Amino acid sequence: MLMGLFNHWVVIALMMIGLYIVIAHGNLIKKIVGLTLFQTSVFIFYISMAKVNGGTAPILADDIIQYSNPLPHVLILTAIVVGIATTALALSLVVRIKETYGSIEEENIQDQDNQTFEQSNSQKDSKQEKQA
Amino acid sequence: MDIVINISSGLCLFVGSFLCLSGGVGMLRFPDFYTRMHAAGVTDTLGSAMILIGLMIISTGFLVFIKLVMILLLGMLIGPTTSHVLAKAALHNGLEPQLGHEDADNKETTSSNP
Amino acid sequence: MINIVILTLLVVIAIAIIRMKDLFAVVMLLGIYGLLSASFFVAMDAVDVAFTEAAVGAGISTLLMLVVISMTGRREITTRHKPFSALFVVAITGFLLIYGTLDMPYFGSADAPIHGHVAPRYINDSMQEIGIPNIVTSVLASYRAFDTFGEVVVIFTAGIGVLALLSVVRRPEDPEQIAVINDSMHERHLVIRIIAKILIPFILLFALYVQFHGDFGPGGGFQAGVIFAAAIILYTMLFGLSTARRVINQSLIRLVAATGVLLYGSVGLATLLSGGNFFDYNVLANDPIAGQHLGIALIELGVGCTVAVVIIIIFFNFAARREMQLNNKKQHQDKKNKESSSC
User: Fold this and answer.
1) What pLDDT digit, counting tens, does each position of C52-92 carry?
2) Could you list the residue range(s) of the whole structural domain that residue C175 is in?
């Protein structure tokens, strides 16, 4: 049982490490790295599901009887390239956040947001007082 | 004939894997960046070359042989280049090589002329 | 056996990624992680996937992250609050997932449910129906062509998103200044420039081989696109953004990206107009097998164009943004210096 399920457990471990990084770390780049880990763990899961003992790569040849399952390979092949495209989109958002806030740490960004919120509130209050 | 091929290929593979292993040990045990890079450089030129030559000897078919030769050429071209670039980048960013056990006042004179 | 070694190494690297505070080291570890998972995919017989992951995970994604780190700073600030709640959530989720795996079929068993359904048909009949040896390509480009069309559109959209977020208005460049920068770079990077000049044509040739040999061996549009983009990115890094911009016309390659998607879609439309289903290539030629060959070659070409160009566009925009930030900083400093000297 240990050998039979080892792959699945490693996948779960990697997935949880990715999830932990996304939850516990405040740095946006680190969060994207965590998401990438999570994503890759899913890839590893699919590919290890596709493996058949004694099978070979799914490229047809005359003297081969057993092939691994090609369907998960197809799904993951496209998912990897889509993954890099979406990661690039996330990274470009991080670049814009850095330009606007001067920081990519979640706490700093939140502090700045709170400050601007309070400022706009106090401005509104003063305006209302004037009107009154 | 068969036994000669097998033994020579096995010998090449053994030497290659030994070099790779020693490169790994060197990465862990050498004191500074430049010496460590020397260990890595040995691994990816001579180590991988010996393994590829060992595989070439037992390769079946011309196409496999040619592919292995191409990988070898590529490795020979890229390995030294990466080592060179890494060392240059380290030097450019002001990382100084450790030169033996010297006194503090000797150190300044040795490190000033790279 | 080798898969257990590789998987254990993957876990070790992932734990190291959690503990590292230096983002540069984190990104390098992520590159190693990508390469290791590519070798795991080879051990699992997924050669096409390994190809892609080696080019994307170890190459392009590492590079993009490094560019971003050079813009945003490489230190992570230590968080003040304790991560116990996160640990708790992760532990509970992990435990539940492990409990779920107890009913799963064992690794490598041939009678697992995943090997039922459509997989036997792909393996047994694809030679008669599609006529190409690489089953992955025939599933990707023919059986599941509609799905792949969606993926290509997603990639294209991500490219548009990056353009919308990062593209900067370019000022006309001073050719003298470019020459000066070029000369200084030439001195500093002589060896790697010469080696790259030798290698880049071969990388491009290899990308074309992967593109057009994808029917018979591992390869196809996705892999070829990524490898092609990697060659262009190597050129850009070594010879400067402005030189690369002269070689590769920005508005032209945007057109190429759109043309790739258009080509893919119009193959589908052509099959509809010829009286078949959407992406049913049998009707494209008199002989169904020849029709399949034609259709697969065309849509792989579309995929290759779109993927290559989108990745090139993404890298160019990141690099241009970085250049702009550096220029702004320089101008700012120059102004400050002038002010202080005038005082």
Assistant:
1) 898 888 888 999 999 898 888 888 777 666 778 888 888 99
2) 117-338
Is A29–C83 a contact, with Cβ atoms under 8 angstroms apart? Answer: no
Chain A: give the shortest CA distance to residue C187, in Å: 31
Does C68 sit within 8 Å of A6, measured CB to CB? no
Q: Is A131 left (phi over 0), alpha (psi -120 to 50) or beta?
A: alpha
> Rounded to the nearest 5°, which phi and psi values hold at C75?
-100, 140
Whether pLDDT at C292 is above 70: yes
| Domain containing residue A62 | 2-101
- In the three-class reduction of DSSP (H, G, I as helix; E, B as strand; rest coil), residue C22 is classed as strand
**Looking at the domain assignment, is residue A54 inside a domain?**
yes
Selection from C177, C293, C192 nearest residue C243 by Cα: C177
> Can you read off the two tokens belonging to residue B98?
């450790």
Which residues is A56 bridged to in the sheet? A67
Mean pLDDT split into 10-residue runs, chain B, 114 residues = 86 90 87 84 84 88 88 87 86 76 47 41
Q: How many CB pairs below 8 Å do chains B and C form together?
A: 15
Rg (CA), chain C: 24
Tell me the CATH number at A21.
1.10.287
Do the Cβ atoms of A44 and C39 come closer than 8 Å? no
Length reported for chain C: 343
Contact C261, C302 (CB under 8 A): yes
Chain C residues whose CB is inside 8 A of the B88 CB are 188
Q: What angle do CA C273, C274, C280 make, to 5 degrees?
A: 100
- The tokens describing C307, both together, are 């993927």
Q: Residue A17: inside a domain, yes or no?
A: yes
CB C107 within 8 A of CB A8: yes
Any domain includes A123: no
Shortest Cα distance from C328 to chain A (angstroms)? 12
Chain C and chain B touch, per 3+ beta carbon pairs within 8 A: yes
Residues of C in contact with B73 (CB under 8 A): none
CA R_g for chain A: 24
Residue C179 has pLDDT above 80, yes or no: no
Which of the listed residues C41, C75, C109 is the one where a domain comes to its end? C75
State which of C10, C43, C75 marks the end of a domain. C75
Q: For residue A120, is it within any domain?
A: no
Complex-level ipTM beyond the 0.90 threshold: no
Q: What pTM does this model have?
A: 0.87
Residue C192's closest chain B neighbor by CA? B81
Chains A, C: CB contacts within 8 A come to 284
Give the mean pLDDT of chain A. 86
Q: Within this chain, do residues C28 and C171 fall inside the same structural domain, yes or no?
A: no
| Cβ within 8 Å, pair C195-B77 | yes
Strand partners, A105: A27
**Half-sphere exposure (Cβ direction) of A128: Cα atoms closer than 13 Å:** 6
* Contact C191/B at CB under 8 A: yes
B47-61: per-residue pLDDT in tens?
A: 888 899 998 888 888
A23-28: average pLDDT: 86
